[in-house]
TrEMBL record:
This is WD40 repeat domain-containing protein. Keywords: Membrane, Transmembrane, Transmembrane helix. It comes from Nonomuraea guangzhouensis. The chain crosses the membrane at residues 31-55.
Length: 394
């Protein structure tokens, strides 16, 4: 028996099930085989490919050999206010109450043929070893609650491998190989699953049309994976995008899915109101959760941790309400982003002196608007645009 067959069958037996990438393993080793072994390897690869193909329908499960031991989330973490008022984007960890800037991305425009252009993200990820942020090569990044694990997408723009990264060691603890390329990942609220939205092509492209204008192509979204981090299993579900003629509609090519606050449902964004449509894990339409609990187009809660107050919409000023709808405070900020605690909110604003409220940064503002603390330097939208990922510290 050739070394290829012996090694491959030993791997197969040790995994006690057909490895999802067995055909790839055989093909990768083929270049080193003598002619006779190549023929046997080709036969084995074809047989395995046929078997594996039978596993991949519209809704499939990929079962890697290993998963990840999910660390226990901290029951208590520091709520110390950490700011970097000299930099935008920040160089040191920014956090307030139970919210931290766990990662951020910057965007650059790349010209393509025929007046098309695409928007490429460059991601930086919090590094507990230095207390700062480290630029990465991943095409997408999200950090689990507790700031111990990150999910990353390997590839140029979109990719077929999702990695589970240990934030402290910077080692990828497991790779999950996927049949369909994904363009985003987001952790479940309990930090045990990753939701990855699949695309047949990179969605962030547009045809340039005059100054400040562009024409988006139809969304290439094809479905989504729910990845169980502990087992490494990835369940795929086909899901067509929302069209620009539907009601509600979505003209955007990027249509990433998100989690409900309790992790029991999924949502997909629209470009109108309601701002999201609800799905069960199998992609079937469901009624929205009771009450308007969500900050627009995010998985964060409008409701304060003690359940007494509700964040209002964007503005200058913004407002916070009690459960009866009465205004309890106004804040001179543009957007209310996340509750730091029952009395303070991380917001997008302009604390102190600034020439233009749109040259703004992250601030911490009190419910009554009387206290505002700068968390990052104000950003000049012409020079240092950056976008943050806000994650619970526990």
């Amino acid at each position: 028996m050739t070394r290829l067959l012996r090694d491959t069958l030993e791997e197969w037996a040790s995994e006690a099930r057909v490895p999802h990438d067995l055909a790839d393993r055989a093909l990768r080793r083929r270049a080193w085989l003598p002619i006779g072994a190549s023929v046997l390897a080709a036969g084995l690869a074809v047989a395995v490919a046929v078997f594996v193909a039978g596993l991949h329908g519209e809704n499939t499960t990929v079962r890697p050999a290993t998963g990840v031991s999910v660390p226990v989330r901290p029951t208590a973490t520091s709520t110390e206010l950490l700011a970097d008022t000299g930099n935008a984007p920040p160089k040191k960890l920014v956090a307030a109450g139970n919210v931290a800037v766990s990662a951020y991305w910057t965007t650059k425009v790349e010209k393509l043929p025929d007046k098309w252009e695409r928007f490429r993200r460059t991601w930086s990820l919090y590094d507990p070893r230095t207390g700062g942020y480290e630029q990465t090569s991943w095409s997408w990044v999200d950090v689990a609650p507790g700031l111990q694990l990150a999910a990353v997408v390997e590839g140029d723009l979109i990719g077929k491998r999702v990695g589970i990264l240990d934030m402290n060691t910077r080692q990828v603890m497991a790779w999950i190989d996927l049949e369909h390329a994904v363009g985003s990942v987001v952790w479940s609220p309990d930090g045990t699953k990753v939701l990855a939205t699949a695309y047949s092509a990179y969605p962030d492209e547009q045809e340039k049309m005059g100054i400040g204008g562009g024409h988006l192509r139809a969304s290439p979204r094809t479905g989504y994976y729910i990845i169980d981090v502990a087992t490494g299993e990835a369940d795929y579900h086909a899901l067509a995008p929302i069209s620009d003629t539907a009601s509600p509609s979505n003209i955007n090519a990027r249509q990433d899915l998100g989690w409900s606050l309790d992790g029991s449902m999924l949502w997909e964004p629209t470009d109108t109101m309601p701002d999201r449509l609800w799905l069960d894990f199998d992609g079937k339409r469901r009624e929205a959760p009771a009450g308007d609990q969500y900050i627009g187009y995010t998985g964060r809660s409008k409701v304060s941790p003690d359940g007494k107050l509700v964040l209002g919409g964007d503005g200058l000023p913004t407002s916070i309400f009690d459960r009866s709808g009465a205004v309890v405070g106004k804040q001179k900020v543009l957007q209310l982003l996340a509750w730091a605690d029952d009395d303070n909110v991380v917001a997008l604003g302009c604390a102190g002196e600034c020439g233009n409220e749109f040259d703004n940064g992250l601030v911490l503002v009190s419910v009554d608007g009387s206290r505002m603390t700068q968390l990052t330097a104000n950003r000049d939208r012409n020079n240092d645009e950056w976008n943050w990922v806000l994650t619970p510290r526990n």
